[in-house]
Amino acid sequence: MKPLQSKVNLILHPIRLRIIQAFIGNRRLTPQQIAQELPDTAQATLYRHINKLARAGILMVVEERQIRGALEKVYMLRESATNLTEVDFANISRDDHLHFFTTFVATLLNDFAHYLERDTIDLHADGVGYRQVGLYLSDEEFLQMSIALNQALLPFLSYQPAPNRRRRVLTTIVMPNNDASSPPDDETPDVTA
User: Fold this and answer.
1) Which domain holds residue 93?
2) CA-CA distances (angstroms) from residue 64 to 35, 67, 75, 146, 193?
3) Which of 72, 83, 88, 135 could be 67's S-S partner, Cβ–Cβ 3.0 to 4.6 Å?
4) How sure is the predictor about 47, in pLDDT bands with cuts at 50, 70 and 90?
5) Domain count, the chain
């Protein structure tokens, strides 16, 4: 008997991660609509990964329609099923972490490349941006910042699609800085010249 696939391996597979990301924002999509979002993925491969996500409870069928004698399913993401916990990551090796993070970043690169393929791009008008900032925060201050960011975003997560709204994807990556120019955690940076 084949062992159950870990939730981390299930979600952080390159194609399945792209499928999951297509649903961000409470979207309801048919397999054909997902295929439009992933035009570089063979239809049989795409359907196999959609079915795998549905069997795992990550995608759920929210509607079924009769279309020309065939049953068309409409899926929605069960967002709580995509949350990875400490337990999910407990037995993952460093090499696996690097592989999963690389998959995640490669997906971002792919999305940005698709954005750049548009006939016209205007980063300012489209609200596209990328940057890094350095913050000196204690663990408690970092927790306060995380809670404040979550509270600031919460009202906007409930907005539904509308003619005057564009779907936007917010991606965050947070990690400690380990370069030699950063003072150790117990030192205050010297701001005098």
Assistant:
1) 7-130
2) 18, 9, 9, 39, 67
3) 72
4) very high
5) 1
| CB-based contacts of 130, cutoff 8 Å, min separation 6 | none
Q: Are 140 and 48 in contact (CB under 8 A)?
A: no
Residues in the chain: 193
pLDDT tens digits along 140-158: 999 999 999 999 999 998 8
The structure tokens listed for 94 are: 């460093």
CATH code, domain with 90: 1.10.10.10
pLDDT band at 182 (very low <50, low <70, confident <90, very high): low
| Residue 167: strand, helix, or coil | coil
Q: According to the 3-state scheme, what is the secondary structure of the chain?
A: CCCCCCHHHHHCCHHHHHHHHHCCCCCEECHHHHHHHCCCCCHHHHHHHHHHHHHCCCEEEEEEEEECCEEEEEEEECHHHHCCCHHHHCCCCHHHHHHHHHHHHHHHHHHHHHHHCCCCCCHHHHCCCCCCCCCCCCHHHHHHHHHHHHHHHHHHHCCCCCCCCCCCCCCCCCCCCCCCCCCCCCCCCCCCC
> 71: which DSSP letter?
E
Instruction: Single out the residue of 94, 75, 92 nearest to residue 84, CA to CA.
Output: 92
